[in-house]
UniProtKB/TrEMBL annotation:
<comment type="function">
    <text>Part of the high-affinity ATP-driven potassium transport (or Kdp) system, which catalyzes the hydrolysis of ATP coupled with the electrogenic transport of potassium into the cytoplasm. This subunit acts as a catalytic chaperone that increases the ATP-binding affinity of the ATP-hydrolyzing subunit KdpB by the formation of a transient KdpB/KdpC/ATP ternary complex.</text>
</comment>
<keyword id="KW-0813">Transport</keyword>
<dbReference type="GO" id="GO:0005524">
    <property type="term" value="F:ATP binding"/>
</dbReference>
<dbReference type="GO" id="GO:0005886">
    <property type="term" value="C:plasma membrane"/>
</dbReference>
<keyword id="KW-1133">Transmembrane helix</keyword>
<comment type="similarity">
    <text>Belongs to the KdpC family.</text>
</comment>
<keyword id="KW-0406">Ion transport</keyword>
<keyword id="KW-0067">ATP-binding</keyword>
<keyword id="KW-0633">Potassium transport</keyword>
<dbReference type="GO" id="GO:0008556">
    <property type="term" value="F:P-type potassium transmembrane transporter activity"/>
</dbReference>
<feature type="transmembrane region" description="Helical">
    <location>
        <begin position="12"/>
        <end position="35"/>
    </location>
</feature>
<keyword id="KW-0812">Transmembrane</keyword>
<dbReference type="InterPro" id="IPR003820">
    <property type="entry name" value="KdpC"/>
</dbReference>
<keyword id="KW-0630">Potassium</keyword>
<keyword id="KW-1003">Cell membrane</keyword>
<comment type="subunit">
    <text>The system is composed of three essential subunits: KdpA, KdpB and KdpC.</text>
</comment>
<keyword id="KW-0472">Membrane</keyword>
């Protein structure tokens, strides 16, 4: 009986050591090594402008001013420590009022009819930090951004086309435009045009 207990204890100890090495050393080292091979995907996708990091390509940021493409609204004012939705339901009067207020503001800013304002211009994403806007929202901003930066609308529209990303895995979601990357490209184009 004692021999069996000792044998079982030794077998259990061996299994513990094997799994400790596999799950505590080999697996983390493999994941770290894989992460280093696809470095740009694992380091937050930093976006640089004039040689310095200005943001992350996977975190939405707030842009104000006519020279910038504007992002989706956020219930958290882009506080990355508080990424969460507002939790207001579609029949909530506060949410309905906020959407109508945003719709009127976007329509005025972009000089379009309120019916032309796309849904993502007035509603926040689930995380509140979505880095993308719809192509429709980017399109209604082209004229304002072009004028503010001294660029032609066709030049800015071609930048929107260049920074439009397709559906995830080819079939999930809708195409979107990464706002930070687009704004950096617009600034570069404006700087080159001014030179």
């Amino acid at each position: 009986m004692i021999k069996d207990f000792g044998r079982q204890s030794l077998a259990g100890l061996r299994i513990l050591l094997v799994f400790t090495v596999i799950l505590g050393i080999v697996y983390p080292a493999a994941v770290w090594g894989l992460g280093r091979t696809v470095h740009h995907q694992t380091d937050g996708q930093p976006v640089t402008m004039d040689g310095r990091v200005v943001g992350s390509g996977i975190i939405g940021q707030n842009f104000e001013g006519d020279e910038w493409f504007h992002s989706r609204p956020s219930p958290n004012d882009y506080d990355t420590l508080a990424s969460a939705p507002s939790n207001l339901g579609p029949s909530n009067t506060d949410l309905i009022a906020a959407i109508e207020e945003r719709r009127a503001a976007v329509a005025k800013t972009e000089s379009v009819d309120p019916s032309e304002v796309p849904p993502d211009a007035v509603t926040a994403s689930g995380s509140g930090l979505d880095p993308h806007i719809s192509v429709a929202y980017a399109d209604i901003q082209v004229d304002r951004v072009a004028e503010a930066n001294g660029l032609s609308a066709s030049a800015v529209r071609s930048l929107v086309d260049r920074f439009t990303e397709g559906r995830s895995l080819g079939f999930l979601g809708e195409p979107g435009v990464n706002v930070l990357r687009l704004n950096v490209a617009v600034k570069d184009a404006a700087t080159q045009a001014a030179s």
